[in-house]
Amino acid sequence: MLEARLSCSDNVRESRQTRASQFVSLGRPGQARWLIPRNAAIVVDALSGWEPHRITARIGWSVLKSALRRPAISRLLPCPKEPFDWLATLNWGALGWEQPSPPCPLIYLGTPGPRRKAVVHLIDARTHRCELIVKVPLTEGAQLAIRHEAHVLLELHKEGFTDAPRLVELNFDEGIASQTFIPGRRSGLRSTREMEGALRRLSLPGESITLQEVAGRLSQHLPAERLCGDGALVAAALERLDDPTQLPAARIHGDFAPWNIMLNNGSAALLDWEEYQPRGLPLNDAYHFFHMTRYLFGKAPRSIWQELHLQCCPSISTTMRWKLELAYLLQTLAMKLAVHDGRQTAFLLTALRRAMASRP
């Protein structure tokens, strides 16, 4: 699917003579995560927003950026072994690049899987600033996700929602999209005032939703035969969601996590809207933030509703916060069962078991 990309020829088209030797490969052996130009000093500033969260990784990242500023050292770093001929076929002008000289691409390669994509940061060689983000699908699943996000960004812009990038161009057939670059630094692993502000702005004033409504849809996606010995646990949790109480509805970002929350000047913008839902339960994204960080950083699963002290939903009672955590865990469990993610399924089932045991 990557053989035929955008076709046009103008003065900003990337030369077809692009070679792996022009890039530095960063990542595990045989699995590059970053492709960085050899003239790395141009793009180092654009890497500042990608500070890792683990202390040891952060130290290594700082050392690496220092090395990239020194041409003599950067020449010693390995070239990428993975083919990326698709880069030479992209037409930056058709994707919204408006500068007179070609961009310097800085490429992040997503986690290998059915929705893997390349995120290309287009850097202006004169100013060293990122001017545009281009998302290129490396799988068919990524094509669908990028198209979905593009339409979401269009709708959010029409609604006047400003805490998201703006769609610049979409090549629907290829599933390639460009969007504005959001400056700032990634969020930390704890709740902040900026994070709460972002959650508050996701609310849908005047709209309501019930747990009962969500439970009705969920019961169809959690078949007992897929749950082995945990069917009774899931059935008991679903029963707790049989509640007709009207709750304030919210937009659901879907991947509300530190790496998708960009902080700048006391506010937060949200990146990567591929999992977006236009209407859902309150606190869904808040629970995702804490459970996902625990999962990805290797921490034990546990119930967190008692620790959730956010000011964005003050009218929600203690019991309702507990039920909303059950709802989040069940919804995410259904999604992970659908893609046969056994590891995260096990994590969610343990968290659900502990949440049920912590009933207020």
Question: What would you say this structure looks like, in words?
Answer:
It is a single chain. The protein is an alpha+beta fold and 360 residues long. The chain folds into two domains: 20-179, no CATH class; 185-357, Aminoglycoside phosphotransferase (APH), C-terminal lobe (Aminoglycoside 3'-phosphotransferase, Chain: A, domain 2, Alpha-Beta Complex). 32% of the residues lie in helices and 19% in strands. It has nine helices and 13 strands. Strand 6 and strand 7 (176-179) form a beta hairpin. Helix 6 crosses helix 8 and helix 8 runs antiparallel to helix 9 (342-357).
Task: Give descriptors for this structure.
360 residues, alpha+beta, Aminoglycoside 3'-phosphotransferase, Chain: A, domain 2, 2 domains, seven-stranded antiparallel sheet, three-stranded antiparallel sheet, 13 strands, globular, disordered N terminus
Largest sheet: 7 strands, antiparallel
In total, the number of domains comes to: 2
> What is the C-level CATH assignment of the largest domain?
Alpha Beta
Radius of gyration, rounded? 22 Å
* Fraction of residues in helix: 25-40%
Order of helices and strands: EEHHEEEHEEEHEHHEEEEHHH
Write the layout of secondary structure elements.
Layout lengths: L22 E6 L2 E7 L17 H14 L2 H4 L29 E6 L7 E7 L6 E8 L2 H19 L8 E5 L4 E4 L5 E2 L6 H9 L1 E7 L1 H8 L12 H10 L6 E6 L8 E4 L2 E4 L6 E4 L3 H13 L21 H21 L3 H16 L3
